[in-house]
Amino acid sequence: MSEHKFIRTCSIWRALEVVGDTSILLILEASWLGARRFEDFRNRTGLLKPLLSDRLKRLQASGVFEKRPYSDSPKRFEYHLTQKGRDLYWTALMMLRWERLWGPQDGKIQIRLRHRGCGKIFDPLPACGACHGEIHARDMSWSEGPGLGWMTPTYSRRRRHRDTAANREEHSILLDHVAQITGDRWASLVLRSIFTGLRRFDEICEDTAIATNILSERLNWLTEINMLELHQYSERPPRFEYRLTPKAIDYYPILLMLLQWGDKYYVSPEGPPLLLTHQPCGNQLEPQVICSECQAPLTPEDVEFEVLEHKSATSAAE
Fold first, then answer.
1. Start-to-end C-alpha separation, the chain
2. Angle, CA 67 vertex, CA 35 and CA 110 arms, to 5°
3. What is the pLDDT of residues 98-121, one digit of tens each?
4. Contact 278, 140 (CB under 8 A)
5. Model pTM?
6. How buried is 224 (Cβ within 10 angstroms: 0-12 exposed, 13-18 middle, 19+ buried)?
7. Which single residue of 108, 214, 294, 296 has CA 20 to 30 Å from 120?
8. Cα–Cα distance, 308 to 77 (Å, whole number)
9. What is d(CA 145, CA 273) in angstroms, rounded to the nearest whole number?
10. pLDDT tens-digit profile of 42-101?
11. How far is CA 57 from CA 14, 116, 233, in A?
């Protein structure tokens, strides 16, 4: 009889089962930029037809996209975000914020965000819903929630398409570096574990149930791209642990928004498995995204974006 390994229930893990795929993130990026039809997605993502068709079906099956007919003869469809898909908008804003701070900028689309409420160009900031203070990873503490339990991980088999985020036509790229990380489910799960204080190989392996060969590759890759750094904690025998770099610490709001999305759509009836406390104000965290200029909470309808290459303004809610 095979032995099943159990891991802690995790809303981030459940969210990554849906969006932890680089090709899916490229499709979502294209949708956020206005793509609706199959050829629009193909032109913007550069994905091959079979791969694109498969991922669009996955997004429909997960309730992120819905098909709407736009032609009866021949029958043709557009792909629109559902409410569940639109709720990924906060993750998208945090990915855009991180890409601006840490990703290469040459040969990429540049996006200007304007807050309709105050009329100013702004940067999206992660904030505490209680005190409206900006969220920093070091200001957070966590405890077990009512929905904490144990689950058998059933990772769906998928090929790694990490490089597809960057290997696109010049000036068609918005999110490449962050899509490689978030789209690599294993890498994001490794970062999640380290954020909770698990820094050693065996601890991370136990927490994620990732196969040791896959875990070794992801830890090496995350170290190569300066998300992690090795620290020696024992000389005899020599042993090391993995610590987050400033670049990785700034990735925290992305995981936070994935957690919030997973809590909303995949949480157990008992409640969330993880409770976060914003230490500066002492309140249970309900994260939101605010305008850097007026500090007002944002809604998708509040945000207008301009693709600077094409000089055209578009509402994020359209």
1. 53
2. 15
3. 999 998 877 778 889 999 999 999
4. yes
5. 0.88
6. exposed
7. 108
8. 29
9. 4
10. 998 989 999 999 999 999 999 999 999 988 888 899 999 999 999 999 999 999 999 999
11. 18, 34, 47
| Contact (CB, 8 A) for 290 and 296 | yes
Q: Which two tokens stand for residue 299?
A: 């809604």
For β-strands 287-291 and 124-128, DSSP reports them as antiparallel
Structure tokens at 110: 């540049």
Structure tokens at 131: 């005190």
Residue in the structure block whose two tokens are 């229930």: 9
Distance CA 246, CA 137 (A): 10
